[in-house]
Target: D-alanyl-D-alanine carboxypeptidase
Amino acid sequence: MIKVLSLSCLLFLLTPCFAQKKKKNTPNNRLETELGEIDKEFLAGFALKDLDNNTIVYEFNGDKSFVAGSNTKLFTLLGGLQILKDSIASFKYTISGDSLIIWPMADPTFLHPNFKKQPAFDKLKNSGKNIYLVSGGYSGNKYGKGWSWDNYNAGFQTEITDFPIYGNVVSYSLINGKANAFPDLEALYYAENQKYNGKHILRAIDNNNLEIPTNLPGGFKQKIPIVFSNSIKEGLLTDTILASGYATTSVYSISDRKMGEDVKTAFNTSCNTAFKSLLKDDDSLIGEHLLLNFSTVLGQKMDTETGISLATKHFNFSTDKLQWKDGSGLSPLNLASPLTIVSCLSQLKSVTKEEQTLLSFFTKKTPSIYVQESHLLNTFNLSGYIIAKSGKKYAFSFLNNNVTDMERLKSKILPVLNLINEGY
Model:
């Protein structure tokens, strides 16, 4: 009995020695706690990279693949910074007698209302020539892989074409109680049914016929994707030149024609202006057509897969955890890990001459946090840069999938970012 008591006393005395030690209140441990709580409700992944030392300082599910959403645009941006020059190549051209023959290069900024300077269009309208538009440069699908056909009427999902024009949308707004279109050109005079009793304009799935509600609410605005054909392209360009006060007989489409050695390139918007629009505009246009532009600039076949392949050749990090299917992230088939994205962010910093130029592409969340945000389907992702109070600079990627309560998740994200800002 005495032996048993002695053994019990010994175990009692030793128990504190084997008890689990309380975690120290370090920044990494606080991050682990915060992210662990989020991961209990949703699927969370995180990576933080010290850009000064080029080291990963913390990761949580860092090597797991997540639906990337518009964080995919970061890879498109990196490709653009490596492949393109100062301005977007708009088209190749040659002059033959009274004819100006152009080969479109999928310039997404051509006549886009957000880009006021249009030197490529100026070249066309000032030429005084008959314009021949070589068609057939792009033969792929009008939508990217995995895109939802239900979004055919949504302004953020525009058709992929070899010759984007006006952002590939017609924009409607309410003026004096009536729906007004921009561009208001004859080529876009669709058949309109104004007996429709709804809240939004509806376009037919396979043509440009519209149903416009009888009564639209004040402040109404909507972008309608254009269904393209050669005749629509010809009409839009002809009407725009005429509306600018310049004479042209017309614009004609001609079948694929081989370029001679005398072709020149017409450039349009500055690349940095286009890159800023790529990240800040919530649509597919810029990203998808930049991939096609990569292909044509390098003399390759104009398609999405070729553009992606050409871009990844310039990446200095492993793409094993990157499944890249389009340029904008609209496809749920785009997958990436947090570690892959911070590697991309790190290379973006190294290839951009001016740090402020790079940061200007991103949305400023706070004075020291710059993000690319994504909310595709049940996902909410933020990736970007943090300049901590310590002065150190970090790249981070915070990916969240299977999100069932978006507002609850958002309330938990900023404390995590502020923890990095304050503690690292």
About this structure: The chain has two domains: 27-81+279-423, 82-278.
